[in-house]
ATP phosphoribosyltransferase
Amino acid sequence: MTITIALPSKGRIKEDTAAVFERAGLAISAIGNDRSYRARVDGLEGVEIAYLSASEIARELAGGSVDFGVTGEDLVREGMADVDEKVEFCARLGFGQADVVVAVPEIWLDVETMEDLGDVAADFRARHGRRLGIATKYWRLTQQFFSRQHGIQLYRIVESLGATEGAPAAGQADIIVDITSTGSTLKANHLKVLDDGVILSSEACLVRARKQGHEGDPRIRRIVEAVRSAVASGDG
Ligand SMILES: Nc1ncnc2c1ncn2[C@@H]1O[C@H](COP(=O)(O)OP(=O)(O)OP(=O)(O)O)[C@@H](O)[C@H]1O
Ligand SMILES: O=P(O)(O)OC[C@H]1O[C@H](OP(=O)(O)OP(=O)(O)O)[C@H](O)[C@@H]1O
């Protein structure tokens, strides 16, 4: 059985991922030319690297077509239901940190918590003739957090494909759920994070798709242990 590890081909977590694999002693050699999207791990028979984008990696983990992937926890949790049954988060890699948050307009002075927001949602229709609109590309995380964790049912998700923070000012939605790292995009758009509005503190992770055949395969153990020890040594 070939083991496939999906690594980011571009974007903000690409270089740090390559550095972790190097520290882990998992040297990667390109197959074919430099622009190839396939590679191998030196000294590990039957282990193949596939280069994909961060969101594709989350999708392939969900579909079970790769054995491991390095991508953001946010994308993995957004990409599948019952995530902890389907994948194992083997190592948190210490980069790509970002929080998925609930943010509301700064001028909503009396809305500071999810409970406050629940009150707003409850009488939004009576006041405005429509449900509270939440702009996001994280619809699964939003539904879990609002409906299951906070019992807020009266809202409408407005799917956003980019520039989510601009949606309230543009009148497309009332509030947002999006990723923040420095907070400057929220601030520029006059939005504030609710006190208990952090849905997930995400970072890049080594993730394993739970598959039959992994147990007892020494290559699986070796990959996990090598990456874990590289992360531990990188901490010091
Ligand atoms: N400031 C930030 N903005 C967006 N994502 C961030 C930020 N900081 C860290 N991340 C994390 O980086 C990951 C996404 O990486 P990146 O934006 O490089 O992907 P990408 O190459 O654009 O992928 P795709 O094209 O598949 O969306 C996510 O897991 C996200 O949580
Ligand atoms: O809290 P901050 O440090 O301001 O970062 C958060 C912003 O950064 C990302 O957008 P980016 O401009 O990187 O575009 P992308 O989502 O297309 O990668 C993200 O979607 C947020 O909008």
